[in-house]
Amino acid sequence: MNGVTYVKAPARNLVSDTSQVEEVTKNILAAVRIEGDKALRRYSQEFDKVTVEALEITDEERQAAVAGLDPAARADMEFAIERVRAFAKAQRATILPLEIEALPGLHLGHRVIPIRRIGAYVPGGRYPLLSAPVMTIVPAKVAGCSEVIACLPPGSHRDVIAACHLAGADRIFRVGGAQAIAALAYGTESIPKVDKIVGPGNAFVNEAKRQVFGPVGIDQLAGPSEIFIVADSTADPELIAIDLLAQAEHDVKTRVGLITTDRQLAESTLEHVQLQLADLSTAPVAAAAWDNYGEIALCADEATMISYSDLIAAEHLQVHTADSHAMGAKLSNYGSLFIGPLASVVYSDKCCGTNHTLPTMGAGRYTGGLWVGSYLKICTHQWLDRRGVETVAPPAVRQSGREGLEGHRRAAAVRLDRLLAQGTR
User: Fold this and answer.
1) Are 30 and 141 contained in the same domain?
2) What percentage of residues in the chain have a pLDDT greater than 90?
3) Is residue 249 within 8 Å of residue 286, measured between CB atoms?
4) Among residues 368, 395, 411, which one ends one of the domains?
5) Are residues 184 and 215 part of one domain?
6) Which pLDDT band holds residue 57 (cuts at 50, 70, 90)?
7) Could you give the CA distance from residue 274 to residue 279 in angstroms, rounded to a whole number?
8) Which candidate in 272, 316, 320, 356 is catalytic?
9) Does residue 172 share a domain with residue 251?
10) Tally of structural domains, the chain
11) Is residue 21 a contact partner of residue 203, using CB atoms and an 8 Å limit?
12) Would residue 297 count as lying in a domain?
């Protein structure tokens, strides 16, 4: 982009050959569709090195997982659940049914209908992300979904099972990866077919969601995590470096960056990143992400900074400027916006109430993240009395005739003809 130079450019981009992932995933989906539970057990042994007899986690196991929580861990988990629930309830209150009389006798409206059965995928990975099931399960329960089915890799930490239980999962299964997505999409002897699948995962989970989409809904196709920070000369380079590396430690493919108009801030941030890495316990992961995908973009002016940020459309976008609220109002493309230096991504990741399942890879240009509305259908309806038919039928008859759709023309005309034959009201 004109007006943008790099104090640090990313060494790699995330575009890669996914043909092998596509083919492996296709085979897994086909096997689960045909063999059901047998395939799930085979893949658990092959991929997770775990022999699974009972796929479903029993109520006794769930209760034991909760009982085994450290008291402070349980309190923190319940705090996060309540914050996410409260925000989801506030969002739900803004989604209202509609009923209008658009013209005399023409009644239009919509209903807000919860999706019946949700499949919540809970990822494994390097760290036991206790917040992950909170973000996918709690909004579903607030939305009024009849049943939430959680799937998590068989080797998942017991505390993750406890989080699924406390968040409100109706059933929990020991199955991960693409095979879990297949089970949720097609159903097996043990796992019921769901209507929509939500939750992030690795490349195979993502690809499986892409391949099953259609007969079953999905929330989004999520890539590696991202954070960008829009900043001016008033920003604190140490704080920026800390926040960038906090996200970089997620994965070696995490994309992190600073977008600024101030060269001194850019250069100082680069120095602080190296200082932070020196004693960061997760440095092997964070440094790889920073070296390969980290960037510091220096922009000629504020307008260029805004344009570049909107081009990136970062999953997490922090604003550290003299007037962060005013700057935030000028930005359009992001998954979630963190306004001011006190609003760290980590608060949303864990417990402040907004959802951390967000669009990546530029998808923030056309969609937002997971929210209570993701679990609802807005379905329209209409009904007409005689006045409505007298108004709507004539143009419908004429338009159908112009299009050569005789069946449509007759369907539009017959009601008007019958009403006219009945005489006046």
Assistant:
1) yes
2) 94
3) yes
4) 368
5) yes
6) very high
7) 10
8) 316
9) no
10) 3
11) yes
12) yes
Residue range 347-377, pLDDT digits in tens: 999 999 999 999 999 999 999 999 999 999 9
Flag whether 85 is in a domain. yes
Average pLDDT, the chain: 95
Residue 145 CA to residue 336 CA, distance in Å, equals: 25
The CA distances from residue 362 to 101, 141, 287, 314, in Å, are 40, 29, 23, 7
pLDDT of residue 16: 59
Tokens of 391: 């108004």
Tokens read off for 331: 């930005």
Provide the domain limits for residue 356. Answer: 224-368
> Tens digit of pLDDT for each residue in 372-391?
999 999 999 999 999 999 99
Show the tokens assigned to 233: 């000369």
Place of tokens 């049943």: 147
Q: Respond yes or no: is residue 267 known to be catalytic.
A: no
| 229 and 207 part of one domain | no
Question: Which of 255, 247, 269 has its CA nearest to residue 320?
Answer: 269
The CATH number linked to 362 is 3.40.50.1980
Residues 232 and 207 in one domain: no
The yes-or-no answer on residue 226 being catalytic is: no
Q: Is the dihedral of CA 417, 422, 423, 425 positive or negative?
A: negative
Is residue 170 in a domain?
yes
* Residue 220 neighbours by CB under 8 Å, 6+ apart: 357, 359, 363, 367, 369, 370
- Asked if residue 127 has pLDDT above 70, the reply is no
Residues 70 and 170 in one domain: yes
In the set 207, 249, 295, 315, the catalytic residue is 315
